[in-house]
């Protein structure tokens, strides 16, 4: 009998009875929050996890729980990765390629949210450059390491509903910058990247999907004052239809559950090229007052191909 999961499911519930011994998995952003929990539960079920992080000292301290929980041959090794620097991204990819070990799953978990206007080391708007372009280059450079039957899981967000990508002005050179507008663009890009990556690789048995982890209190919100977070939650709940369930914070194990569900448990054909939330595939919803679902523009295949081409132009590489 197939198990069903939902918004309150945790990582350990999703992976209950699953043996990941012999699996090789890359997780970015393992210095805090969802990345640490994702790596922990995968290693606890036997996977060999490669954890990528910008600050390795911080990551070593944060992932002590991962090594302590590892079982059935599972374990963790760390690799340096600063997604806001393409030099660092390329160096990380080169290191993984030199090792040559194939991956069963890549979880592109790392990211930033609602930060002040700024640029990456390469001059890209910080959120688009870090959340999308950094992972775009990393994943495409190591695509040859994704074996048949493997998956890519991009962490997106319900925040994709704040805004579509703007391919004419990705760096806000002519557009008024807003923290959540930029965040929305980057999260829409995460979905579109999964859509096009899935299209390009599914004939080789490699699938891609995007997920929304839920509303969770982690370091991701470090640029937001507590009163801003409270006001955001209040406004989201105030906009809900009458009788709708209030939006509540998830725990970190609940937040990471959809990543491991989409990457390990869900059938590949069910999630490939789509967007998931609360351990299920999200419906397409255009009602701005409905908190769930995915906007159609984030799954549009032509839009996804256009973003891919624009991203190649921006990073100076053809994949």
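-> sequence recovered:
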């Amino acid at each position: 009998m197939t198990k069903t999961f939902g918004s309150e499911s945790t990582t350990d519930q999703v992976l209950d009875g699953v043996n990941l011994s012999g699996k090789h998995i890359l997780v970015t952003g393992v210095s805090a929050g969802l990345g640490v929990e994702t790596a922990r539960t995968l290693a606890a079920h036997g996977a060999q996890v490669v954890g990528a992080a910008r600050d390795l000292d911080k990551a070593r301290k944060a992932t002590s729980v991962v090594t302590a929980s590892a079982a059935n041959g599972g374990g963790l090794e760390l690799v340096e990765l600063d997604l806001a620097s393409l030099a660092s991204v390329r160096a990380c990819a080169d290191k993984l390629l030199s090792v040559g070990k194939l991956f069963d799953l890549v979880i592109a978990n790392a990211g930033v949210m609602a930060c002040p206007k700024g640029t990456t080391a390469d001059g890209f708007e910080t959120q688009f450059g870090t959340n999308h372009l950094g992972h775009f280059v990393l994943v495409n450079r190591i695509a040859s390491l994704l074996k048949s039957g493997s998956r890519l899981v991009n962490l997106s967000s319900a925040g994709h509903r704040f805004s579509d990508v703007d391919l004419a002005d990705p760096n806000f050179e002519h557009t008024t910058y807003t923290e959540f507008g930029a965040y929305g663009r980057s999260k829409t890009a995460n979905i579109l990247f999964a859509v096009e990556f899935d299209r390009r690789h599914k004939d080789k048995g490699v699938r891609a999907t995007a997920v929304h982890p839920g509303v969770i209190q982690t370091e991701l919100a470090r640029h937001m004052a507590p009163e801003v977070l409270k006001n955001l939650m209040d406004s989201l709940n105030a906009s809900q239809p009458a009788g709708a369930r209030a939006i509540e914070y998830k725990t970190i194990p609940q937040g990471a559950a959809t990543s491991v569900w989409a990457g390990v448990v869900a059938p590949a054909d069910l999630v490939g090229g789509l967007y998931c939330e609360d351990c299920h595939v999200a419906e397409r919803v255009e009602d701005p007052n409905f908190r769930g679902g995915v906007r159609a523009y984030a799954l549009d295949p032509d839009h996804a191909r256009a973003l891919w081409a624009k991203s190649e132009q921006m990073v100076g590489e053809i994949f």
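The beta strands are 24-28, 48-53, 75-80, 103-108, 146-155, 207-212, 275-277, 280-281.
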